Amino acid sequence: MRSLLHHTLPALALAVALIPAGAHAEDFPVKNKTITIVVPYAAGGPTDRVARDLAEALRKPLGDVSVVVDNTAGAGSTIGTARVARATPDGYTLLLNHISMATMPTMYRKLPFSVSSDFEFLGMVNDVPMTLIGRPTLPPNNYKELSTWIAQNKGNITLGHAGLGSASHLCGLLYQSAIKVEMTSVPYKGTAPAMTDLIGGQIDLLCDQTTNTTGQIEAKKVKAYAVTTLQRLRTPALKDLPTLDESGLKNFQVTIWHGLYAPKGTPAAVQKKLNDALKQALKDPEFVKKQEGLGAVVVTDGRIDPAGHKKFVLAEIDKWGAIIKAAGSYAD
User: Fold this and answer.
1) Distance between CA atoms of 43 and 73, rounded to whole angstroms?
2) Whole-number pLDDT of residue 24
3) Among candidates 63, 67, 68, which has minimal Cα distance to 27?
4) pLDDT tens, 192-247?
5) Nearest by Cα to 76 from 54, 105, 51, 52
6) What kind of architecture, by CATH, is found in domain 129-227?
7) pTM confidence score
8) How far apart are CA 46 and CA 88, in angstroms?
9) Which residue from 30, 160, 161, 262 could staple onto 120, CB 3.0 to 4.6 Å apart?
10) Nearest to 178 by CA among 100, 250, 254, 106
């Protein structure tokens, strides 16, 4: 018996070692296992909201498994993003992130991961316009008046953002560059605290995604001045806002996008199941309605496929790299 085991056990060990990593991918997802979508920003922010709507829309196409959102905020989204890069590549830990995936490679001198090589690209989710808004007590009532007010208050204007490399930070950089006025930058640990201080009058301006600003604009808790698209938006609460382009800042355009990612090495069969589920989720009438209500546009083009998603992000890395270098915004 000992002789038999002596010869059999090594053979069994070798056979197990030779089983492909994705051999059991056909079982994905297991009913009693939770899929976690990591959002690398604070709860209550725009990306968090998109993630929670997406998690709900993904449950049915994934076989009614539990899909939850976990906020791992900090360091301009690098902490949460690094967490997913290090996660077990089995499809149960995913990342939802926005344009930060394109700006981090230039924004940070050292990153604990590579955007291009440490992730599997599962598909884009949406495109989100941005809005330039102000505190409720700000004197200007429209963009023309705001331009005059900014010219008269140079050196005394505060512009909040959700942290280095965040969507609001990038929009703020471009806006200051476009109008050639430098404002006092006030960073926060997420959009929610920045919005709280804007409503409370602690900061003057904020340029943020419609997913986070539409409700505040509707409730008249902030003053809305312009949108960052080349055409006006059709969302009821925002349809009367002028574009910055028509207001004199020609070709000013900032649109924030969100994409879904898995750790590098996630089995191809699991990636396909996740991409198939994502495509179904993006057609969910309730999800589409929620996104449209926030001014976001659900992706329907080639970026919904992994190859198209990755090609787009790599091009965005080049695009934003030049902008960030020109602005001189870096972090260690």
Assistant:
1) 8
2) 62
3) 63
4) 899 999 999 999 999 998 988 999 999 999 999 999 999 999 888 899 999 999 99
5) 105
6) 3-Layer(aba) Sandwich (3.40)
7) 0.79
8) 27
9) 262
10) 250
Query: How many Cα neighbours within 13 Å face the side chain of 227?
Result: 26
Architecture of domain 32-128+256-327: 3-Layer(aba) Sandwich (3.40)
How is the chain split into domains, by residue range?
32-128+256-327, 129-227
3-state helix, strand, coil in the chain (%, to 5): 45, 20, 40
Distant-in-sequence, close-in-space partners of 225: CB < 8 Å, separation ≥ 6 = 131, 132, 133, 134, 140, 142, 143, 146, 241
Are residues 134 and 157 in contact, defined by beta-carbon separation less than 8 angstroms? no
Q: What is the DSSP letter of 129?
A: E
Q: Above pLDDT 90, what percent of the chain?
A: 73
Q: Which helix (H) or strand (E) holds 158?
A: strand 158-161
Mean pLDDT, range 275-279, rounded to an integer: 98
Q: Tally the residues of the chain.
A: 332
Phi first, then psi: give them for residue 116, nearest 5 degrees.
Answer: -75, -25
Strand-pairing partners, residue 94, are 37
Q: Are 221 and 197 in contact (CB under 8 A)?
A: no
Please answer whether residues 93 and 264 qualify as being in contact, where contact means their C-beta atoms are separated by less than 8 angstroms. no
Q: At what angle do helices 100-107 and 306-327 cross, to 10 degrees?
A: 40
Q: Is the bond into 112 cis (omega within 30 degrees of 0)? A: no
The confidence band for 22, taking pLDDT boundaries of 50, 70 and 90, is very low
CA atoms within 13 A on the CB side of 82: 13
Residue in the block written with tokens 């998690």: 55
Write out the two tokens for 187: 């960073």
Rounded to the nearest 10 degrees, the angle between the axes of helix 191-199 and helix 210-218 is 30
124: enclosing H helix or E strand: strand 119-134
Which residue spans within 174-254 are E strands per DSSP? Answer: 184-187, 205-209, 223-227
> Token digits for 176?
């200051």
